[in-house]
Every structure is written in C-alpha cells, then in structure tokens.
Amino acid sequence: MMNQYSFNNPFVECTARDMEYNEVSKYWCSPFYLYNINEKMLFHSQTPILLEGARGCGKTMILKYLSFFYQVENIEHNKENIINHFNNLGSIGIYFRFKNDFGKVLETINCLKENKDILFEHYFYMYYTRELLLIFIELKKFLVISEEEELMLSDVKQKYDIAQSESFKDLLDYVNLNISNADSIIKRMRHSSKIQDEISNFQNSKILFESLLVAFRQRIEHFKNIKFLILLDEYENIKDFHIIINTLLRQVDSSEKISYRIGMRPESISSYKTSISDELIQPNRDYILISLRINNAKKYQRFLKEISKKRLNTNDFFKENKLINIDELFGLREDWEHEASLIAKSDLDKSFSLLDEKLLQKQNIEEVKKLLRNHERPLLQLMNVIWFNRGKSAEEISHAMNMFLTLPKKDLKQKDDCAYKYMLDYSMKYKYQLVFVLISLYPGASKKYYSFTTFSYLASGSVNDFITLCRNTFSQLDELCFVELIKNKTIPIEYQNNGAQEAAKEQLDKFRICEDNGKEMYTFVMNMSEVFRTFHRDPAMQYPETNQFAFVDEADLSRRDLLYTNFKNMLKWGVVERKNSLQRLSISVNKKGDIYYINRLIAPIFEISYRTRGGYNFIIKTSTFEKMLTNSMDAKQIINENKKDDHPQKVIKPKENNNYQQLTLLEDFGHE
Amino acid sequence: MNKQIYIMEPIQDYLENCDLDFLIMAASSNVRSYKSLEFIGQKGTDINNIIMLDFTESSPTQDSPYFNDYHAYSKMGIHITTISCDQNSINFDSLGISENSKIAIDITGLNIPSLYRIIFILSEVFGINQLHIFYTEPQFYVFEQGMLDAYEYLIGDRKYNVIEEYFNSGENNKEVLVIFLGFDRMTSSMVKDEVNPSITYLINGFPSTSPKLKDISLLNNYELIKKITPQIYNTKANNPFSAYNILSEIQRKHLNELLNICVLGSKPMALGSCLFVLHNKLNVKLSYAFQKGFKERISEGAATTWHYEISTN
Q: What's the rounded Cα separation, in Å, for the pair A598 and A535?
C-alpha cells in the first residue's frame, strides 16, 4: 500500500506565515463568516483596521489574502482582468511581516532612542517601498505599466534622489542597497562610536514611498483612485515603535488614499500615544478593532472541516479512498458511556465505595446497592450514588432511573417530575463530570480525548492548534492503520488520544520556554490546572466541569505592574483566554467581570473538561495569584490560600427538604 | 598535485613552528578550556600576549565548586593578561592589535555568541584576514538529568535573537532557516516558531564526538522534526569546513533568499557558520538561542585539541 501511495502527513507545515502566496491560495478557506467580518470593509475602509487574535486564529492568512500577490494569484493574468479586479476591490495591499528578530535587534542595539526611531522609520518605508516595487514589476509583466515606468521614476526623482535608477529593477537594487547600508550600521553599532552620525544622514525614505504611490496614481489612469493598504503583520514584534505607527494611524487622511491593516496578538499595543502633542489613538475614531474570536461553535466546526478537507485532498491516499471528511475520520463525538463501561468492568461496584456511611447506617446496605446498581451503565450507577448521598431514598432513585430508561425523553416532564430531574442532571449536567469522578476511582484509568468535536474544543478557536492535533494523530498512522482505515473509516481512539496528549505536552512546553515570563506562566498553568483537576474528581460536585477563573479584584491586579505584565503575557501568548463578554464572576456573586480559562489544548494532561459550563468559577485573590506564579503548589494549598469570606467557596450546606438541591463541591476541603 | 584547501590539524603539529602575537581565550570551568595552554607550556611556545577574557556573566563565586577549575590558568606558569568584562562589552582597542597582527583564538571556553562577536571585531573592525583557531573536544558532555530529558537542565532557558553583528534584512521577506542541532529539548522548535521560515534545514553532528550523540540530538529535537517536512543533513561535529560546505550547498538552492543560520550544536559548527557568513555578507544572518542563565560546567575531560586556520575574506 505504501508503495502505491507515498504518505505525507497532510497536516505538516501549518502556519500561514510559512506559506508562499500560492500555498495560501491553495489552502484558503474564507474565515469571514466565522468572525462576522465584512470582507468589503477590509478592502475599502479608509479607517485603519487592527485585527487582534491569538496565535493561529488566521490573522496572517487574512492579511495575505488582502495582499496584491494573493489576489493576482487568483485571477486570469491579463491586463484587463487585473485592472478590473483591483478596481473592484478598491485597493492594492502591500504585505510585510515584521520579524521577531528585527524588533529585538533594534531594541538591543547600543543607540540613542531618537536614532533608533530614525532607523526604524527608514527600514519601515524601505521595506514597504521594496514590496511596492515588486508589485510594480509584476504589473509591468502584465503590461498594466509600460512606458509609464520612465515617467513615474522621473516624477519620483523630483522629490527624492534615487541615484542612477532608470527602471523599477534599478530602483529595487537601490532600495536593497539602502537597506543593506542600514544593516551595516546595526552590525557596527556596538564597535564604533561614530556610527550613529551616519543615521542622521539618511534621506527621508517616507518621501520615496509616498512619491512612488503618487506617481503611480498620476501616471496609470486606470488606477487613479486606487487605495493602497499597508498590511503590517506581527505588530507585537515592533513594540518599541508603536508610537510611530500610532501617529501614522492618527494621520490617515482620505485624500491620501493610504490606509493600514494591522495584525497583532491580544494585549500587544504597548502604547496608545502618538507623537502629536498629547493625542492618543482611539478605537472607532482612529482605527477599527476586529477581534478574531469564535462566537459560534457550529460555524467554527464547519470552518475546520473545510480546512481539513482541503489538506486531506492533497494526499492521494485520502483522496482516492474518499477519506476527506475529518469528522468521519475522527468520529463526531466521544462516547462517554462506552468509555465508562471499559473503565468500570474490572470492578463494577466500585462506585459504591462513595456511598455516605452515615446515610447507610439505618438501611439495608445490600438492598440500597441493589436499587442503585446499574452494571450496564456505570455512569448512571455513579449518579445514583451521588443522588443517594444528597439525601434521596434508594427507592426514589431507582424509580427515577427506571422511568428515565424506559419512557421517551420528551414525555418525562409531564409524566414524572423526579425522572425528569434525573434526566436533566444526567444528560444535561453531570454526565461528563461523572466520567472524571469514575476515573478517580480506578487507579491507572485515564480519560481519553478523541473525536472531531473534542479536538475542535481543545483547539480553543486556534486553527493552528487544530491542525497540530491532526498532525500529531496522523503522524502515528502506519501501513496497518491505512488498511484498517479503508475498512473502518475512523482513526482508532488510541491514536487520537496519543495525538491529543502529545499536542498538550508540546503546548505546555511552549508556555515554559516562552521568553515573556515563560516560567511564571508555566507555573501558574500547572497550579491552576491542578485545582481544576481536583474539582473534576470531586464526587460531591454541585457545578460540573469547573475550569474557569476570575479575579477578586482585577483593578488591584492591574496596579501591580509586574503581576499584571505576567497576566497580560498570558493573554498575549494564549496561555489564558478571556471570555467574550463580561459575566457574573461566579455563582452567588452579583459582580460582573472578566472570566478566564486556561488554553484548552492542555486539558488532556490534567484530565479536565474541554468545555466551559459556567456556574462556579474559581475566584483568585491577587496575593494567591502572585504565589501561583512562582510556587509549585498543590490544589489544597491553593484553595486554602485563597479562602476568604469575601468571595464564594464551594461549601456544602445540604438543604434536606429541597428535592432538587444539588451537591456542593469540596465540603471539607482545606479543613483536614 | 594535491592542493590543501583548508588546515585542520592537531595543535601539537601547529605549535612546532607557530608565530603568534596574540592568543585570545576565555576563562571557563570546563577543564578542556585550558588544554591548549598545557600544550603551549609543554612545547615552550612563545606567544607575546595571551589574553584571558573573564566574563562577568560566567565567573563563579568563591564558594562555587568550580572556582578553582575556573582560575586554574593563573597557576600554569604562563604570563597571561586577564580582561574582565561582560559579553556585550568585548573591546580590544587597548591591546595594540593591528591589521597585521598574528592572532589565535581558543574558542573552547567561549560561548557561541562571543565567538561570533570576537571574530567580527578582529575581522571587520581590525581588518585581520587570517586567524588561527584552537578548539579542544570534550571527552563527554554532562547530562545531569539524563540524555533524553535534557531540556533546560543542560543549559537553561533560552531566548532567540539575531546576532547583532551578523544582522541582515535580506533582499525579500523570505527566510530559510538552518539549524545545527544541539541537545536541548524544545530549543530548535522554539527557534523555528520564532523565525517562521519558508523552509527549515536541520543539520546533525555526524560523526559526532561520541557515537551516541548523533542520535541523542535527533531524539531531543523530535518536536521540531515531526512538525516539518524534515530536510536533514549531517556534518562532522568537529570540522568547521564541513559545516561551511553544507551551508554552501543549501545556499545554492536558495540563492535569493535570506539564510538564517542558528547553531545550537558544537563550536566548530559555529566557526564554520561564522566563516560562511563573513564570506557571504549579502543574504545570510546568524542567530542564536541565548541562555538566560549560565551553567558552569557542561562537559568533562579533554580529548583532541585542534588547530584550524581560517581566512575571513
């Protein structure tokens, strides 16, 4: 089989940054419906647009899509088509990615700040001029520009000394020489005291860039109204120079027909200042901020399926065997009942070890067990135990379970109130948490992570992370798996789970080695996840799948510079994510605020839920947060540390007469 | 007639007839760092100025178990001038070095960024074209936490950056990353994530200084290898000219793209890369995963000490 198909993992090389324009085109799936973005606005808006989103959400893909070279890749190459296409779009996008090491080297060189600013501006306009010239050279190939080239250069010469440049190619060489000269200054900066003087001799490269744009519009009649978009990717990499860019955003003027589209990570803007007296840039006046966040799970899953299909179609084996639907290859969702049966089969009555001994004292234990028992469905048996511990009688529970199992679900509400409640608790609330509790009873048992739905949740809205999960799963497939795949159409759960575990481990390692407070972020994630893991394994849970947190006083946190920087870095690097809207901090707390969750990709390591359910959220004091950043703590220690009367705790206060009262979590936690 | 295109020989052969004005080296707790001095002492080789760089970042405190090893050079009965400085302030202005000075650098005790910086200063600031390099191989590396779980334990946290003196914007936005593999888990993967190149080449040290190391480096870089379509080359771990040749081969495939070379492997590999960049200034840059902390000892023992002669222009 492998002789017939040379197997390349269709999910390697996943980021848009790695891709050439033709590859972007090959893998492009429109994300605009996903984020509710008006595509036309991206091309037309005179107000600059900032695209903000975590790693892997598609910022680069969108910026490359807006670029000239992507657009030209996707149309028939003739003069008329090109003119019509770009006039319909309304703009020509000039893409440039500011590399991480460019920003860092400018940050670290031994140079006065004002000279650094001059150097940056010089590079900024030279880089974009270079990209612009490459566009002109391309347009020349398609005869959109012909004899106008000479006229354009002549126009430019009146404003800027471009030496002997007689063609775009000459000018490109000249620009490259200028860039190379600036590089040379950086190289020698540390070893020559006189080198800084050379910086002040730079010609103003902004004039070169702008005069080229003006010459183009004046000389190419068909494009006299075209707008140019400066597509600036990885804004976070030039954080020392945000004031310069802010000033450009503030000065955008409709008459100049230049606007900006900027891609950046969350919390990346280092300053809102401009160099115009005290003016700050303001959203909706100076720029439009578009947050690339998932609001609709169905749309998101549709998007993931489209992306995966494109990749699977590139591989002959998957294409020819019609194995191109990722939801079929992974299976749509996990089967918790089946997993529970496999876990519990070694000791089917193990969950009875959780029965409350006090409640059992006056009852016939064997009779109680008989009524609560359900060997076919261990999760139901476990829930029966939990209901019994809440104070319900074994007979009542047995009745509710039997009605739940025999009556059609739609009839339960009318026919049996208790059975209806049983159905709600099981199907709608606790089923997934019960799997984690069950696992805690069986040493060596573990939760498996598999299925398309699970992977889509684990990826937390990052397409990159979804592709990583796929890549890690597919990388395990051997020849035998291929034979099986043709027969079964689904990748075995074990392989998927291994892929998920590997992706989780990689992610955690990435947090640890991250240069912005990596160790602190890692320590916090370990601590926080340990708390969530403990909640997940608590049989006395009231609110299931606790995996979100908030701060008691976020204002207090924001006043602590170092702590707040740590936290902002967590958001920037996608270690922690903020929920879309303000919510009540937790159950029984009226105050609204931001709710956060840990990147879900690492859930398999800690065996916690990949979903968010709300209800109870762990509310952290600033002092606890501080300790969680630097100390490896166990869950009890953290919960104790955090305990105070001024925020909700998971304290059990069973209300005996309330039939529907649920259990609370961790009754005596921290009081042992 | 056979033509000698590079010189790589045991140091003993070179010291027979050497004529040097300066030997520049760095103090270190790794015992192999002073092996060349032992040979110089044994042979009675006369070198006018031996300069020992004592970097503040790596200088151990008096209570360190490595304090004596670090300062062992001062008890070797050879006249040595010590310069204390930090790695960002290396400056040879007061030494009387000129364009015609005959200089050797012992790179054994230098870390890779300092090696790059010193060669830049001598070649680009002083205009010296010919350099002699000494390098002593370790008998073995220290893997305190076991060979397969060495990340962060071997060296410590890392931070990717370009080497300032070898910064290059390139002629377009495309970048080809070449990583010489080392032993620290995740480091190569971190570098790849930071750079985001269009293509990544991995270069493994084979033959390595000890047989297992070639496999250890592949295993410890597994995270990266599985993430990309791997293009893996081998180069002799102790031969800078072999590294140089591989880089030339890669460059021929990517003539108009910027080559970003990041050496996480041996110092001879770094030397070969440095030489390659000095010869190809247009579209090449050097980067490194800088250590945030400092590990006092990473190797034990001393094996062969090599002399390489390089031409920087």
A: 15
